[in-house]
Design brief:
It comes from Desulfotruncus arcticus DSM 17038. InterPro entries: Cu_amine_oxidase-like_N (IPR012854), Mao_N_sf (IPR036582), SCP2_sterol-bd_dom (IPR003033), SCP2_sterol-bd_dom_sf (IPR036527). Pfam families: Cu_amine_oxidN1 (PF07833), SCP2 (PF02036). The N and C termini lie far apart (89 Å). By secondary structure, this protein is an alpha+beta fold. A 5-stranded antiparallel beta sheet has the order 5-6-7-8-9, with helices on one face. It has a 5-stranded mixed beta sheet with strand order 16-15-14-17-18. Helix 4 packs antiparallel against helix 5. About 15% of the residues have low confidence. The chain is 36% helix and 27% strand.
Length: 318
Amino acid sequence: MRKKPLFIIVYFLFTLLFIAAIPAQAAAPSIVLNGQILQCDTPPMVEDGNTLVPMRAVFEGLGAQLNWDNPTKTVTAATYNTNTTVQLVIGGDVKVNGQKLNTTAQAKIYNSITMIPLPLVSETLGAAANWNPDNQVVTITSAETTTPVYPPIVIETPGDTAVEEQEGIEEDSTADEQEGTEEDSTADEQEGTEEDLTADEDEDANGEDESANNTSFSAYLNELENRFIPEKAAGFSATYQFVLTGDNEENYYIIIDNGQLMTGEGTAGAPDVTVTINEQLWLDIVSGKEDAMDAYLDNKFTVNGDPSLIMKLKEYIK
């Protein structure tokens, strides 16, 4: 009668020992990007001692846009916040801004997903990337950026010579009135002549101003002011400088100061972003005839500063 209880005790002891001997199931590898878990269909993987991560999920999480060219098996990524272009051939070279990267790391295709060695995240985009084998977590942190303190905005504008000429005429007229009757008559005739000349000069100047303001980009800025939504832009400030090429080689600026819009011709001091672009190309982009991403990757225009602010501008337009 005592053998049965003893058997049960021994059975449970062996069961507990067996369960304790089985290691806990390892958690699936995950990616933490800037403190947040990155949702991706394909998790990180370790192959031959190398940690591989899904390129599209990671690069898009870091603010890049990607394009896949199937004939050449090439991935092109452009990240506006660092003004960086990465070209990566599957199983081949890696280029950053056109310069070949000195690395042995290569991308591969896994279940139709481009997987890249973890070090490439740091070598191409400058982000800190680490793999913790104990908890099966890849940690990626964007390169630190600081917000510069800009000096006051200075707009270059020509002097108003017409006003100076008019002031001179008025002073001459006052002096003439203090002279004798005969001198008054002569002064009146001279004054009339000078006024006619000044009026002609003013008309010529106005004609030149109207001609300058009739450019396509000026018309775009006028339309921008009509379509701007200050309520949406409340609290937002940025300075945009446009350096136009082609037939209309002029400088224009767009300034948003705490939700208030200012535009015009000239140069703004210390802009947040400077776009050097052909006038017609920009008009084609804003009208939807040209894709901005394709044009940027084809080096049709250059951006100096934070290009993401250009996309931000679109949020405040009707």
